[in-house]
Amino acid sequence: MEDILDLDRYPLDREGSPEWDRLVQQSLAALSVDGMFNLEGFLRPGIAEQAVREIKPVMDTRSHVHKRLHNIYFKPSIPELAPDHPALRKVETISHTVCADQIPGSTVMAIYEYEPLVRFLAATMGKARLHVMQDPLARTNVMAYRAGEALNWHFDRSEFTITLLLQQAERGGDLEYRTDLRSDEDPNYEGVARLLEGRDPEARVLHMKPGTLNVFRGKNTAHRVTTVQGDRERMIAVFSYYEKPGVMFSEEERVGFYGRAA
Question: What residues does 5 pair with on adjacent strands?
Answer without folding.
Answer: 43
